[in-house]
Amino acid sequence: MSLSRPDKEYAPSPGLAQRWANRYIQGYLRRHPALESPSPHALKLARRWIIFWAAIAGIISGILIGGSEWWMREFATDNWEEMSLREQLPYWAGYMAVAGVVTIAEIGFLYWNALRGVASVTRLAGLSYGQAEPFEPDIQLTVHGVSRAALEYPSPGSLIYGVDPHAYLRGWKFTLRALLYRLKVSLSSFLLRLLLRRLLGRLTLRGFLPMLTGPLYAVWNAWIAARITQEAYLQARGPALVNYLMETLKESDEHTRQLVAQGVGELIMRNQQPHPNLVRLLARLLNSLPGQPQTLEVDWPSALRDYAQLAEEHRQTLLSSLTQAALLSGTYRGSRKRFLKEVFATCQTPLLEEDIKAQQQRLLSGQAP
Prior knowledge:
Elements: H1 6-10, H2 16-31, H3 40-76, H4 85-124, H5 137-151, H6 172-186, H7 188-199, H8 201-204, H9 209-248, H10 254-271, H11 276-288, H12 300-309, H13 312-328, H14 334-346, H15 353-364
Helix pairs in contact: 2-4, 2-5, 3-4, 3-9, 4-5, 4-9, 5-9, 7-9, 9-11, 9-13, 10-11, 10-12, 10-13, 13-14, 13-15
């Protein structure tokens, strides 16, 4: 029995919004020929424009929303401060309507800008895709991943070759995470506006709110756009980097590849999400093992005992592979940093953080690790 497709493992049943986003990105890639290698200059320029337009959207929406409140207080009435809350309610209803329309328009533009941006970044990052329909599973997995990044969707929680991404996320933590994701996707910008209006309410009387909220919204939008495009770049580099990693494991023995697979499975659970690059890597590892097992049962305590007993040659291969795997799923911090510290300590090998950060920089600049 052949191993199931990694794109089907990652997104077995994508929702309507993701299917639409997938079609948009697929159409963009078919209209633009793939590059033979990453284009750093074009990539940097594209990211700057994506971030720029997100910031401009924040400035415009900030001025419109802040300005409407300033106009309401200064010109709609002559004695705003003397009015009761009941008398102010019609004005607040009008203000909320304006703020809601502006926010919806801004969010719609930001989603379009993000989708267009991740499609452009994916191509400029050197993703090798053909014009045939449908895309091959490895490329389709990247399309799934970058579309979810653009929509700021949480990663699906389905089993990945038997590995549960939410194994360490139970009970109230799972509920809280789901709630925060929904707030982030649908209400973050609007809540930021209400918070700023509350905090800067006194300045509104002086007409400063439009000048302050515009730049603050711009910074907020620019940060989100920068984070999305960096994630899209990392995912687009995934197929080439996973191929490079598997080439380094070609001469290793079955036991070492099995231990690397255990580490990748544990990393998926530690990250609490199945990063597309790790899904791709796990599929390739399972496919390289005798019998091509369909699932992986992660036994981390047992794996750590085996790590400690490895010979020096196999130990270095393991540490190098798991370092690359961790960096393939994000920056060297948080759960990935704790994971590598535990693995290196178990192998009684010094963890040189400067070397790992340098490797991360090479990876993000388009070079092989």
